[in-house]
Amino acid sequence: MSHELTEQDVRQVAKLARLNCPDQEIKQFTGQLGAILGYVDQLDQVNTDGVEPLAHSLPVCNVFREDVIRPSLTNDKALQNAPQRDGEYFAIPRVLGEGS
Amino acid sequence: MNIEQLSAVEAVTRIKSREMTSREAVEAVFARIEQVEPQVGAYLSLYKQEALQKADAIDARIAAGEPVGILAGLPIAVKDNICTAFGTTTCGSKMLENFRAPYNAHVIELLEKADAVIIGKTNMDEFAMGSSCENSALKKTANPHDPGKVPGGSSGGSAAVVAANMAFVSLGSDTGGSIRQPASFCGVVGLKPTYGRVSRYGLVAYASSLDQIGPFGRNVADTALLMNAIAGYDDRDSTSINTDLAPNEDYLAKLDEPVDGLKIGVVKQFIASEGLHDDVRRSVDEALARYKKMGAEIVEVDMPSMPYSIATYYMVATAECSSNLTRYDGVHYGYRTPNPKDYIDVYSSSRAEGFGAEVKRRIMLGTYALSAGYYDAYYLKALKVRNLIRQDFEKAFKLCDCIMCPTAPETAFAFGEKTNDPLKMYLSDIYTIAVNLAGIPAISIPCGKGDDGMPIGLQIMSSYFTESKLLRIARMYEKVAQASRL
């Protein structure tokens, strides 16, 4: 799977991850991420034919509980860390209309 | 009072029997903090007034003959990625620098129930990503044994406060070695419990299938005592293990009973691993020789998938991290960029400005591993190798009670030594990382000093839910080592 990681690739990943990285950081990450992926390529040497993927170390299955109402955060508590709030709401810049 | 001489177990006994007050213990710890903290820098926040108030309340209850919890009046520190309804929970990040958690983590509720006195929250690599605490955006923490060396990470602050006697015990979290490696570097005991043994409710998520909270102590008994307080089922963590499968145990009760007919596994692939320093190898060999003298049998175990654990981890952990950290959006809580161009820029610039370089690297690595066209080759492949790693352990534990190896390939390194080369930093987790992928418990205990005079850690791993046996095995060594020092 090995291929040279380009700055273009890294810029695309940054966009997907919603990280507005400056050019200089993209350049630095390209080299570093390329080296890490090069190291990860050794997984190719492992024969995994017929091996099930393991997402979780313990045999946990769906955990169900009774659907009962429990105390939860008040609106005010839930909003206490909001960078910007508007009354009972989280505030963000305008999404629709006016030149956006 | 000289707190260096006093273990956590002794301190609680004395507080309960009124030979000493909790206030005296808290004051002694703060006196020590005033003296040492300027050089070490392990705390991100301290709560002296609150701690003294709590101590007085506990002392009053004891004086009135009321029942108190198993950590009655004991000063304890908590890693800053564990939510507390008081103060801040920063995760060592600019993103959460001013974050005030609206609720307590499950383990914090348990500490309160046990009447522990939380004195402060400790420094860490940002979002628990790192092996030296150098990724903290908020503070530099030095190794208490040498100010030029790192304390390890990511729970470096929690290891350092216990090593420097700035708390009796502390809590950390371990995703790839983040309790055991700093315990090794700072010369203290650190336990990573079985995945699911301690509730993750209120632990800020990094890689959810690997994260686990665990205790630090200056000795094995103190570590067991804290484990008694935090272990157990919690229905708010869907991966918390039911008591049917893992009954609650008293880890102190049989601690001094040696394990009869102990069989210790040494991993063929670890013996051959490059990068293992001679002084570390020597110390671990000496520790094994001591166990042999106690009647233990050493067996070599073949674990062919071990060399692939770092590569596997950095796909699994970063994939989970890229998903977990999407919640930092500059909208609900945390840092927001001051002048966003539009609503998309609220996300993109808040995240770019709020996260440090290592966090961004891991988010991007995980995003890449999960992206179309690479998912099968990277993420799915890593999950398959993860299964082989778990199978290696299952086979090994049919042949032995535990596996021993160094916790880290070297003693604490100097500041800046690995910061320019992330891969080099990752490779220092070679012995600890497979444990998290398999979900088994493991402990690091001090086993000597390196050529540079810095502590070396012996790592002991055992099978699922055998923490009790693991602690007893650790205690066997500690007893002999203590006796030889007398």
What distance lies between the first and last C-alpha atoms of chain B, to the nearest angstrom?
22 Å
Order of helices and strands of chain A: HHHEE
- Give the integer mean of the pLDDT values of chain B: 96
Q: Percentage of helical residues of chain A?
A: 25-40%
Count of separate DSSP helical elements of chain B: 16
Structural class of chain A: mainly alpha
* Number of E strands of chain B: 11
By DSSP, the count of extended strands of chain A is 2
Give Rg of chain B in angstroms. 21 Å
Question: Which blocks of ≥5 consecutive residues of chain A have pLDDT under 50?
Answer: none
What are the segments of chain B in which pLDDT stays under 50 over at least 5 consecutive residues?
none
- The outline of chain B comes out as globular
CATH fold label of the domain at 3-260 and 432-485 in chain B: Amidase signature (AS) enzymes
Strand content of chain A: under 5%
- Would you state the CATH class of the domain at 3-260 and 432-485 in chain B? Alpha Beta
Order of helices and strands of chain B: HHEHEHEHEHEEHEHHEHHHHEHHEEH
| Coarse shape of chain A | flat
Estimate the strand proportion of chain B. Answer: 5-15%
Q: In this structure, how is the largest beta sheet of chain B organized?
A: 11 strands, mixed
In words, what does this structure look like?
The complex is a heterodimer of chains A (100) and B (486). Chain A is mainly alpha-helical. Chain A has a domain of 39 residues: Histone, subunit A, CATH 1.10.20. Chain A is 33% helix and 4% strand. Chain A is built from three helices and two strands. Chain A has a two-stranded antiparallel sheet with strand order 1-2. In chain A, helix 1 packs across helix 2. Chain A is flat, with a radius of gyration of 23 Å. The model of chain A has no long low-confidence stretch (mean pLDDT 90). Chain B is built from 16 helices and eleven strands. In chain B, strands 1-3-2-4-6-5-10-11-9-7-8 form an eleven-stranded mixed β-sheet, with helices on both faces. By secondary structure, chain B is of the alpha/beta class. The mean pLDDT of chain B is 96. In chain B, a hairpin with a 5-residue loop joins strand 10 and strand 11. Chain B has a domain of 312 residues: Amidase signature (AS) enzymes (Alpha-Beta Complex), CATH 3.90.1300.
